[in-house]
Design a protein that fits this description.
It is a single chain. By secondary structure, this protein is α/β, with parallel strands linked by helices. It folds into two domains: 2-118, Response regulator (Rossmann fold, 3-Layer(aba) Sandwich), CATH 3.40.50.2300; 127-225, Winged helix-like DNA-binding domain superfamily/Winged helix DNA-binding domain (Arc Repressor Mutant, subunit A, Orthogonal Bundle), CATH 1.10.10. 40% of the residues lie in helices and 22% in strands. The chain is built from eight helices and eleven strands. It has helices at residues 10-22, 33-40, 59-68, 84-93, 105-118, 155-166, 174-182, 192-206, and strands spanning 2-6, 26-30, 47-50, 74-79, 97-100, 127-130, 133-136, 141-144, 150-152, 211-216, 220-225. The chain has a five-stranded parallel β-sheet, sandwiched between helices. A four-stranded antiparallel β-sheet has the order 6-7-8-9, with helices on one face. Helix 2 (33-40) runs parallel beside helix 3, helix 6 packs across helix 7 and helix 6 crosses helix 8. The longest helix is centred in the C-terminal third of the chain and has 15 residues, at 192-206. The two termini are 36 Å apart.
């Protein structure tokens, strides 16, 4: 089961992330509304935990757009906006549950489990596709649909490429990547990211796909599809 947390308060996001991973869920974090909307529209998640007050795009707008796209992912709103009018707005836009801050993490986990039990028959894609590149989420392998070439990748390479593919055409800062792939509390060497980017680039070249990882000077990295 895959869960997306869209929450700009990193302490709260980290607490929820840690607790959900203990439950053996696969969890991603988006720390602003723009990133959260992009990830949500992928349709790969079983459930989204969605804050309302977010930078760039608020939670109600995210919920509205994913429902307009006919994406039926379960959504639990998580917000300090506790007025009845706000709750009704959430439900009217298509929320499945509404939890107000402050909250007990165990109650949130219980609500997550209830929603996922209701949705345990939902078919989730076992791959992500960008351009002619497919990343198999079950086997951690890369496949080019144009050349029919495939190659295996390591664990950190998989996590890094998965994150970049989910955020295609978006410039992601090094800190965002470290938080998403290595974890908010992890200690890492400053050259780790560059090394893994290099490993992935070599494998993308081996299978001859039309996807590249571009370094944006002073900002971070961006995965993009280039014209052949």
């Amino acid at each position: 089961m895959q869960i997306l947390i869209i929450e700009d308060e990193l302490t709260i996001a980290d607490i929820i992330f840690s607790r959900l991973t203990k439950e053996k869920y696969s969890v991603d974090i988006a720390t602003n509304g723009e990133e959260g909307l992009y990830n949500s529209l992928s349709g790969i998640y079983n459930l989204i935990i969605l804050d309302v007050m977010l930078p760039f795009v608020n939670g109600f707008e995210i919920l509205k757009q994913i429902r307009e796209e006919k994406i039926d992912t379960k959504v639990i709103m998580l917000t300090a906006k506790a007025e009845l009018e706000d709750k009704l707005s959430g439900f009217n836009y298509g929320a499945d549950d509404y939890v107000t801050k402050p909250f007990h993490v165990e109650e949130l986990i219980a609500r997550v489990n209830v929603q996922l039990r209701k949705d345990n028959s939902k078919k989730i894609k076992d791959y992500i596709e960008v351009g002619n590149l497919k990343l198999n989420l079950k086997t951690s392998s890369l496949y080019c649909t144009s050349t029919n070439e495939s190659i295996e990748i390591g664990c950190k390479e998989f996590l890094l490429l998965e994150y970049l593919m989910k955020n295609k055409d978006i410039i992601i800062s090094k800190n965002q990547i470290y938080d998403a792939v290595w974890g908010l509390d992890s200690v890492y060497e400053s050259n780790n990211l560059e090394a893994y980017i290099s490993f992935i680039r070599k494998k993308l070249k081996i299978i001859d796909c039309n996807v590249s990882i571009k370094a944006v000077r002073g900002l971070g990295y961006k995965l993009e599809v280039y014209d052949e």
